[in-house]
Target: Putative deferrochelatase/peroxidase EfeN
Amino acid sequence: MKRHSSSGQLSRRSFLTTVGLVSATAAAGVTTACASGEAGTDGSADQQGADRPDPVVPFDGPHQAGIATPVQAHNTTVAFTLRDGVGPKEVRRLLNIWTSDARRMCSGEPVLADLEPELSSDPGRLTVTCGFGRGLFTAAGVADRAPRWLGPLPAFSTDRLDPRWGERDLVIQVCGDDRTTVSHALRILVRGGADYARPSWTQTGFLDVPVGPDGEPGTPRNLFGFKDGTVNPRTETDFDEQVWIDEAEASHPAHVGGTCMVIRRVAFDMPLWESADRTTREVSMGRTITEGAPLTGRAEFDEPDLAAIGDDGLPVIDAHAHIALAGVHDGDTRQRMLRRAYNYDLPVTAARADGLQDADLVALADTGLIFTCFQTDPRTSFIPVQRRLADGDRLNEWISHVGSAVFFIPPGTAEGEYWGEKLLG
Ligand code: HEM
Model:
């Protein structure tokens, strides 16, 4: 598979209209282009329009938004459990309500009877992405239409899973550049669906997307300090190969255009990480912290050379470095996926804080990564990659997987259609 040697090789328009990381810093007044509103009718960029990404991400289309959409600054993902007695009729009603409310809010229109319409008028690249767990298919009376891979992942040797972050019937991922809008949208959806589904877990994450000297968006960093998201699908062909389910991969025609979402909650042991020196950190990742370059290269998008041997006679990129094990260097591109991970950082709870010194409060903060990825089939991508990582990744010293859930993301909607209508209808 071809990779970009530099994001700067792409024109601003193609970068933002295919996929890449767009600046989430519009509010800070940093120059970024819009995906769709880049130029005026005569082709000249309207200054205000050019400075700010288009606040509307189209809702309808062949795929749901919030996947190929360049990452936004905020992500709140909520998993739901269907209420007792919810059957096929109620499932359809719920999806109908949610889809039409999400469609409105993402377009900058308030939902009917919204008493705070001001909170919907500027969507700030709001996207709402809905996914189904196996329980949804069963409740809808179409259990036989669930993708075969849908359900818990096999156990990995390093798992420390807490069922609190586990499989549920439904998921809603809400992303946007404006935290208030994201929060408002979620409240509307939770309230609108309250008769049919109750929120079961909520994961809230953030990212800061830097802007390079050329005005192009850069790769955001995770809380270990590394650029995270360098190796990802960028072009339509990459997405077709790695993310969107096609006819040959679908076990039901209405899966086509959908994808598989895996959400792993990964806790970081920050005090231990902070006791590791910079070289140890870089060797464990196989990349430099400053540039995000492979240890065998100089720039972020340089191809890693896993065969390179250093002056000391040892491989420059350790065989157990994260990228050596996570990367697909044997040519099996089916193992690729879209990673759309968000940082989380929660203060220590009052119960745990009682009687602790201030320094302990910082040390005990609950910090990590909401590792969300999208792929055509986890059996050929996430599972083999995570198996290699669980067995040998140097990062394992500092991380624990504490949550795991898998959802089928139905394809996008036509105007007026509800999520999964062709599958459930
Ligand atoms: C919390 C744990 C993790 C951290 C901190 C982390 C961080 C990173 C970083 C910094 C990179 C290099 C830059 C990039 O390409 O984005 C990377 C690459 C990658 N990671 Fe992770 N990652 C984690 C967990 C995982 C998991 C669970 C998987 C999948 C099972 C995974 C799959 C990958 C892949 C496929 C790459 C690209 C490798 C390549 O082709 O060079 N990562 N990760």
